[in-house]
Amino acid sequence: MKILPLVQEAIVNAETAIRSNYPTIKIGEDSFLFSEIASRSKQRFDLLLSSTTNAKLYTIIRNALPPPVSITNLEDLDLEMDLSIVYSKPGANHQGWHADGNHLVGASDAELPYAICIFIPLIDLNVTVGYTQFWLGSHKYKNLQGFGKFSEISNSTCDIGRTTKKGNGILYDYRLLHREQEQEQPPYYRPVLQLLCRRKFYKEKNNYGTKSIYDTDNDNDMQNK
Questions:
Q1: Residue 180 pLDDT level (bands cut at 50, 70, 90)
Q2: In whole angstroms, what separates CA 144 from the centre of its chain?
Q3: Structural domains of the chain in order of their starting residue, each with its CATH number
Q4: Taking the model in full, what pTM does it have?
């Protein structure tokens, strides 16, 4: 079974739930953090895939993973994996340089990674539809946030995402600085499968909220922080 139609269905279901249960939120314009989905910036979103809300898609992806990150091997390696779809729509703007995860408190610059992220685009990436740009080596240093311009001056940027074909993966340290370069002629949306492979002690708490989009008893708190 193909993944893309199931991804499209998951996105439609999530956005329909927001419109139904949080009608004051303008999807694509307003900032929000829910336990299943969060806005990352204008017209850019991160939708978590779970075994409860997206059972079919979740199972297909997990079972398709080769060793050593297959569903049977993760526990032996003391690892857990989070699955999500990062997608953007027409009108999304260029992102600033950022890391999805910070260095751990007390860790040295050269500390081994506690999480690895894998991007797998579900359509071909290029300058027309948009792509991810990376700052090579930035994961080694704790205090580079806010110095993104230096990556361009020092010729440290990497545009590997610019020519990534659908189904191919880009693997990087969760602390690596990167940014989305948005579309010149965007399709309806650009979906990228994100696999976060992390040590069990690390729990992602910053990128999602606590309320559910399926919670009908709400106060329409679009920030949901």
A1: confident
A2: 21
A3: 3-199 (2.60.120.620)
A4: 0.80
